[in-house]
Amino acid sequence: MTEKKDTYKTIEIAHGDVQFKDKGSKFIGYVFPISNENEVKTYIEGLKKKHHAARHWCYAWQLGIEEVRYRVNDDGEPNNTAGQPIYGQIIANDITNVLIVVVRYFGGTKLGVGGLINAYKTTAKLLLVESKIVEKTIDVFFQVIFEYKDMNKVMRIIKENNVKILEQKMELNCDFLIAVRKNNAPNVEKQYLELRCLEIKRILP
């Protein structure tokens, strides 16, 4: 049986001011990493203040890894000439948890449907060529509670499986929050349960 994919691609650092020009119109692209829809509004409001003299602020975003949500917005341009071409570049680069905004300054000459689609697509494409796309793992989170005397056993499993320790509390007992790559999570959980000297439970992110 083939293992399900447990990685995804995204961008880690916002990038912008990538420009494309056509017949006097200027298109300026920006990309932001996002983790929820509220961030979309914040970034767009910021760009509207920065580019208050622009005519359009068109965008597309995608959120989620296994259950994907997305939205496109033409912001006054003819239907499907801006948001959809931008979103096409998100799909082409197989990235998620991103927002791409293309700001347009109108140059006085209409570009037509084909010209607009090309301009928004090209701006988004140039933007992503310049952006650093990274691959991340889809992780499962566990809380592991154990006594100090069992520290070596717990740490051995962590080291052998490249498990990430996100938080650790050392009080009466040791309390670790760990992240395990999804495909390896059942194996790590099984190894800990077999120790029979600790408590382990899955934590929703």
From TrEMBL:
Chain ranges of the Impact N-terminal domain: 23-127
InterPro entries in alphabetical order: Impact, Impact_N, Impact_N_sf, Ribosomal_Su5_D2-typ_SF
Source superkingdom: Bacteria
GO terms (BP aspect): regulation of translational initiation
Pfam families in the record: Impact_N (PF01205)
GO cellular component: cytoplasm
Residue ranges the record marks as coiled coil: none
PANTHER family, sorted: IMPACT FAMILY MEMBER YIGZ, IMPACT-RELATED
Record-stated family: Belongs to the IMPACT family.
Protein name: Impact N-terminal domain-containing protein
Organism lineage string: Bacteria, Pseudomonadati, Bacteroidota, Flavobacteriia, Flavobacteriales
